[in-house]
Amino acid sequence: MRVYLDHNATTPMRPEALEAMLPHLRGRFGNANSIHGWGREARQALEGAREVIASALGARERDSVVFVSSGTEADNLALKGAAWAAMARGRHVVTTAVEHHAVINSCRSLEEQGFDVTYVSVDGDGLIDPEAVERSLRAETTVVSTMHANNETGVIFPLADIGGLARDRGVVFHTDAVQTFGRMAIDVESLGVDLLSLSGHKIYGPKGVGALYVRPGTRMVPLVHGGQQERGRRPGTENVAAAVGLARAVELALASMEDEAERVRLLRDRLEEGILQRIEGTRRNGHRERRLPNTSNISFQGTDDESLILALDLEGIAVAAGAACTSGSLEPSHVLRAMGRHPEIDGGAIRFSLGAGTTEAEIDRVLGLLPGLVERIRAAQGRPQPAPAYR
């Protein structure tokens, strides 16, 4: 039995999403910017997809959705585009120390261009304090960017509180919602966000497509220049098939969201409680309650994450350590470092992220194998046995 527990990295495409795409990969091949029949057919499909996503976000205007190639591009366009557009006012950006690398590295790029960036830290549970964000704001602050939920721990941030602070100061507020869109209800009005990034392949849609919500009136400078596609905010011929597949995946996700959230939460708790009870020297990383229902991040004292991942992989079980975009990196997780975790003390940390295909039998298989694998790794590495109090 193969077990896939890496849904925060990517998800399998729903057959219905693929079926929706196929006509636009075959006969309906027109350019959505052409005025003839083929073009109008493509434009209708593209705008229909835009309407689905805008509605899912609670957006008042369909044109507030900009199609891009990925969540990473959406983050780059949001951060850089908004910061560049507001340079006359100031060059200060506020973000958190636990953001996805698409945001972290966008901010580092801005620093190289003369911007000042404040990286607000989190507490030991991975939670961000809105008051810490407020203390970081200055007269010259132009953009605040905080993720909706962390991709490694699943911890959910208090966006509405932070959005209120940004709105009161007239600061553009961006959130990376790649891990939450399609998994929990999102309303851009109640959250107070001006820019929101999402991605297709995290919600059983196609890879290579994402979107950026842009609140009407929010000023941005485009990353690339060309024609007037996406109202000039993202030039380039639109990928109609991918947009249609994303929209279909969104419809299916919303229809089953509440039931699916409860189903995977029960499975996650079964897995997590089983690990913590059966294996000494284990520790949950992230707040117990305020996190995504599908995500569990656990440290295994006396091990390293690479050995754990490879041992599980040899048994046909897919898990992750940190973000998929940092695969191959020997650096400890910047998220866990910000939470005060140290791999030389806390051991290897594994992210288990469940999804639509996860079953109770799969969870039980992992629980049956993992204690023996951890014991073997600890023995091979000659590390001292962890104390029971470590939990």
Q: Can you give a write-up of this model?
A:
The protein is an alpha/beta fold and 391 residues long. It folds into 2 domains: 136 residues, Aspartate Aminotransferase, domain 1, CATH 3.90.1150; 238 residues, Aspartate Aminotransferase, domain 2, CATH 3.40.640.10. The protein is 41% helix and 14% strand. It has 12 helices and 12 strands. The strands form 3 sheets. Strands 2-8-7-6-5-3-4 form a 7-stranded mixed beta sheet, sandwiched between helices. A 3-stranded antiparallel beta sheet has the order 9-10-12. The longest helix is centred in the middle third of the chain and has 39 residues. It is globular and about 65 Å long. 50% of the residues are buried.
Seen as an oligomer or otherwise, the chain set is single chain
| Count of helix runs | 12
- The share of residues in helices is 40-55%
CATH class of the largest domain: Alpha Beta
Topology readout:
Elements: E1 3-4, H1 15-25, H2 37-57, E2 65-68, H3 71-85, E3 92-96, H4 101-112, E4 116-120, H5 130-136, E5 141-145, H6 159-169, E6 172-176, H7 188-191, E7 195-199, E8 210-214, H8 240-278, E9 282-284, E10 295-300, H9 305-314, E11 317-318, H10 334-338, H11 343-346, E12 348-353, H12 360-381
Parallel strand pairs: 1-11, 3-4, 3-5, 5-6, 6-7
Antiparallel strand pairs: 2-8, 7-8, 9-10, 10-12
